[in-house]
Amino acid sequence: APSGARWAEAESYWRTLVSDPDAGFDDELILNAADLVPQVSWGTSPEMVIGIEVHAQINTDTKMYCSCAARSTSELEEANRYVCPVCLGHPGTLPRPNRRAVVRALTLALKLGSVVNERNVFARKNYFYPDLPKGYQISQFELPIVGLGQMTIEVNGEEKVIGVTRAHLEEDAGKSLHEDFHGMSGIDLNRAGTPLLEIVSEP
Predict the structure, then answer these.
(1) Is 199 helix (H, G, I), strand (E, B) or coil?
(2) I need a labelling partner for 39 at 20 to 30 A (CA). Which of 29, 129, 145, 152 fits?
(3) Contact (CB, 8 A) for 191 and 175
(4) pLDDT tens digits, 15-51
(5) Residue 50, exposed/middle/buried by CB under 10 A (0-12, 13-18, 19+)?
(6) Three-state SS annotation for 119-149
């Protein structure tokens, strides 16, 4: 690991640059970042630890927060046919959760032996996406409907238990179309608002 004096020298130099950009670079003080990072020993057999996040479309007749028909991509006859002021995010509209989607989420909770949060909260996940008409996604985070649970799978004849961190209700975005538009993109919002269950596993 680098000495404390070398850290202090580097910190002093970069503070000078931040406070006085016109100070110029001192070749003798420009330090290779690798020199300042302690060497980490990974041992002989590193272990990869990965959690999985699955977005599952819920089989319902209508969308998550409005009464527009929910159709799979293959069933859509024409762009922007199954839309309304709610799933388009018009001002003054009030979304209402799809009862059947909630029941399906509770069914999953029972199958996984999960904790069911009697008080669960919907929140706005704000981000820009061309085919996200509201500019935010109605989702869950701190208090999802489905809490800790587990499922058993079989791998090469051996049973393994996979922990489930959470499963929460949310809505899908629309679809950007690029193939049929030269130099432009089209937006199809039929899928916007389709109910989803986001299932997150333990690592």
Answers:
(1) strand
(2) 29
(3) yes
(4) 665 566 565 555 554 444 445 455 555 556 777 788 8
(5) exposed
(6) CCCCEEEECCCCCCCCCEEEECCCCCCECCE
